[in-house]
Amino acid sequence: MNLKDKVVIVTGAARGIGEAVALKFTKKEAKVVLVDIDKESIDALVKKLNSMGGDALGIKVDVTKKEAVEGMVEKVVEKFGKIDVIINNAGITSDAKLVKMTEDQFDKVIDVNLKGTYNCAQAVAQVMEAQGYGVILNASSVVGIYGNFGQTNYAATKWGVIGMTKSWAKELGKKGIRVNAVAPGFILTPMTEKMPEKVLDMMKKKAPINRLGLPEDIANAYAFLASDEASFITGTVLSVDGGLVL
Ligand code: NAP
């Protein structure tokens, strides 16, 4: 997979899957832009990536803020002159059963996972249309496809991400832009650390591969979909879940 010199924006890059994606793409000699609300962590990660020979840039942005996202995209074009790939990875959970979920919990998750993805894709698509090429990759989830106890808000966003992915693939294909989603199973990151061990153990046993996923498993899928080897793949949802839902 050749990703050398590709300019790749990764949102939610400070930890978990986003951090693994930033590392993977840096090892593949891509120029990585790390976007997150946690400035301290992205600064530390940028330092690490650049000490490995990378050409990384960190920008503190809340993806729910349209103007901040547009400013970030301008900065990237100013520094690197193009955008090859965006990985819309930033996402949050705020779990509660349907009857207990507050309006704030519902709105917060919709705002980051759905509107944040839309804000970033919209700003980047304008640059990619003008270039005549680009790849947009979105974070869905096994929970978006099959639902999950206590995750009304999260499931809605991750199913919504699939709808946006397919719509954008149809709209942007003729402009040279591919759009795909990845649907991870249960991956060991700070997000799943909040889940009861009992549930994680159940998920592990349910998967034929018989383990939980690692952030690197998801980074590998993004790397493939970002590469030219995936040039005939668009509008798809790649499940990376150890066979959890077979
Ligand atoms: P994570 O460890 O919680 O990392 C998410 C990152 O996104 C954090 O650094 C977080 O910052 C950042 N973030 C949150 N709100 C943001 C905002 N408004 N603007 C910019 N950055 C923001 O999550 P993860 O487990 O790596 O998950 C990454 C993505 O994969 C998410 O979209 C998630 O839904 C999806 N996914 C994960 C799993 C899994 O099992 N882990 C499974 C399926 C799908 P703070 O920590 O400071 O809030």
Question: Which key features would you list for this structure?
Answer:
246 residues, alpha/beta, binds NADP nicotinamide-adenine-dinucleotide phosphate
Structure, explained:
By secondary structure, the protein is α/β, with parallel strands linked by helices. The protein has a single domain, classed as NAD(P)-binding Rossmann-like Domain (Rossmann fold), CATH 3.40.50.720. 49% of the residues lie in helices and 15% in strands. The protein has 9 helices and 7 strands; from the N terminus they run E-H-E-H-E-H-E-H-E-H-H-E-H-H-H-E. It has helices spanning 16-27, 39-51, 66-80, 103-131, 142-146, 152-172, 190-193, 197-206, 215-226; strands at 7-11, 31-36, 57-60, 85-88, 134-139, 177-184, 237-240. Strands 3-2-1-4-5-6-7 form a 7-stranded parallel sheet, sandwiched between helices. Helix 2 (39-51) links the parallel strand 2 (31-36) and strand 3 (57-60). The longest helix has 29 residues, at 103-131. NADP nicotinamide-adenine-dinucleotide phosphate (NAP) binds at residues 11-12, 14-18, 36-38, 62-64, 89-92, 112, 116, 139, 141, 184, 186-187, 189-192.
CATH class term: Alpha Beta
The largest pleated sheet is described as:
7 strands, parallel
Shape call: globular
Low-pLDDT segments:
none
CATH topology, anyone? Rossmann fold
What is the number of helical segments per DSSP (H or I, 4+ residues)?
Answer: 9
The helix content is 40-55%
CATH homologous superfamily - what is it?
Answer: NAD(P)-binding Rossmann-like Domain
The CATH architecture can be named as 3-Layer(aba) Sandwich
Which H/E pattern describes the elements? Answer: EHEHEHEHEHHEHHHE
Count of folded domains:
1
Termini, distance in Å? 28 Å
